[in-house]
Amino acid sequence: MSWKDNIYFILIEPKEAGNIGASARALKNMGFKNLRIVRSGEFIVDEARWLAHNALDVLEAALRFDSFADAVSDMSFVAGTTRRKGRTRGIFMELRDAAAKISAEAVSNKVAVVFGRESRGLLNEEVDECGFLITIPANREQPSLNLAQAVLLTAYELSMSGRSSLPEDKKSKDKRVCQEELQRLYSRTTALLRTLEYIPKGNLDMEKKIMVNIKHFVGRSGITDWELKMLHGIITRIERILKLKADGRC
Questions:
Q1: How many folded domains does the chain comprise?
Q2: Are 52 and 23 in contact (CB under 8 A)?
């Protein structure tokens, strides 16, 4: 299986069927095939078929999801695309650098590249779930790209980054756990921080900020199954000691 088969392009709430069709064509142009659509109406219509042009197989195989969480649940890495920057939005990488990282990770892991709505991009809560954000350098006078254009540029850079064989030391050979498993870890971590009163009781803003930061630094590199078990083991041990103390037995 090619590393390209491990890269999934996810479109969130696309409104224009033509953009979905053109995105399918862009993927096939560059040798990719995995397209996922989140919360969209019927998109296999004449306009989409026409713009897909010889990529109907990619268009018709696109998977539909009711939520962003479901669409990325089996991914080890999630990278969002955006033109908006801000200190609270996470780590940013320009497209060419991001493509090199993604192609290396895709040797052994599933990677999602997420594109937001045509009108307003990714919502803050979706950005929070991304390990890092990809920016496409563009003219400041017109920095916003059409959805299908952004998909094409991203697919092109990814294809070029893996065109020559990746050096062995750049390939990611360790299998990382998926988002579904990470969500369980995040839930236990949140509960533990509350128990330890690391987060002031009732301060939901601070709780969210801490957990978003944890998600971002875990999401940038991912963790292996062994590392996940180790972290769960640490949490379990702390929980046991806290229970013993609460019962007066420690």
A1: 2
A2: no
